[in-house]
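chain below, 265 aa
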Amino acid sequence: MMDGLDDHPDLLSDDQNKGRSETVDLNTDTSLIVDISDALSERDKVKFTVHTKTTLPEFRESEFSVVRQHEEFVWLHDQYVENLDFAGIVIPPPPPRPDFDASREKLQKLGEGEGTMTKEEFNKMKQELEAEYLATFKKTVAMHEVFLQRLAAHPTLRTDHNFRVFLEYDQELSVRGKNKKERLGGMFKTLTKSMDEVLLSGQKDVDAFFEQEKTFLLDYHTKVKDATLKCDRMTRKHKDVADSYIKISGGFVGLGTVENTNLDK
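prediction:
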């Protein structure tokens, strides 16, 4: 039978000697460099090793690493969204949840059908599925890394206390996903914010030049519309005159074809 993917959890170890070609450099400022140096895939989660190198005085050390899970990335994003100090700043979207169920299911079905194919066919399909899984895994790691690099590259977002905790605290953050009540509270908060924006949108500043131009255009539009209606009426009258001429010419043609009349006598 085939080996499961969990027998090879350290999927980034083969690339350590080749360099991190997938790393996206979003920050030319080298005072705070964040990347994911390693990732460990387990049955129901992925552990990311977040490596930080910095010269900023806010950090205790100049280089350090911590292990983080996906839920902690989501927690960090939520802290930014809920912080009013960052209102008006575009917060980078959180990375998607790692989902390798499809690839694992394909590998499981391949293992169940091992006896129905040749060894060469089985090995070829196994290699293709493992390559697909590895590509998905690397993409997931890269998206988590880009999220952190965008935060580190922003001159304001990088100063957040929770971001420093995320990078520097060497223990689990013990975060959890929001329950139903908290999610509803967040939706209500968003709805309230939207209503406030609608109410505030009714308060408009008066611009004299704009109002003058607006009045001129409205008056111009009214006159053009009135002229169009008059042209339509004139066109209809011309059509009526043309119809009358056609009838008159038809009468003359009829008179010209009469051979015997009382006038001939």
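The chain has six helices and three strands. The CA atoms of residues 191 and 197 lie 10 Å apart.
thats it, cya
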